[in-house]
Amino acid sequence: xxxxxxxxxxxxxxxxxxxxxxxxxxxxxxxxxxxxxxxxxxxxxxxxxxxxxxxxxxxxxxxxxxxxxxxxxxxxxxxxxxxxxxxxxxxxxxxxxxxxxxxxxxxxxxxxxxxxxxxxxxxxxxxxxxxxxxxxxxxxxxxxxxxxxxxxxxxxxxxxxxxx
Length: 164
Known about the structure:
By secondary structure, the chain is α/β, with parallel strands linked by helices. It is built from 7 helices and 8 strands, in the order E-H-E-H-H-E-H-E-H-E-E-E-H-E-H.
């Protein structure tokens, strides 16, 4: 199994994911990691309807993901992982999942979050978590669509900090 992309996108499955990233990555499996969605059969079924034909969908809790990823045995399988927030990425890494790259694809405005780029809003806790992930050697960038420019999020954080 190869994780072709681990994407943080609070909308999870939508057109940019299935039509954009899906066409470029050609995953054989999409894994949504969300404790709340994994506990809701109707939400799981709803996401299943948005997945392209021929692509397997797994909806897992963080704990299930940590257990399940070690059991994926097909070395040729291409897996696209979707999570709703940076906290989930931190939990996966702390739980022992090997993560090399993280794509920030859509983290929308919410109370306590500040705009970093037009489609990424981060809280101070998000920034702390991203910093800790980077310190572990994980490559973190923002890119909303495959044809979009890959953005060094830390450069933007520093620029925003300098601007006050």
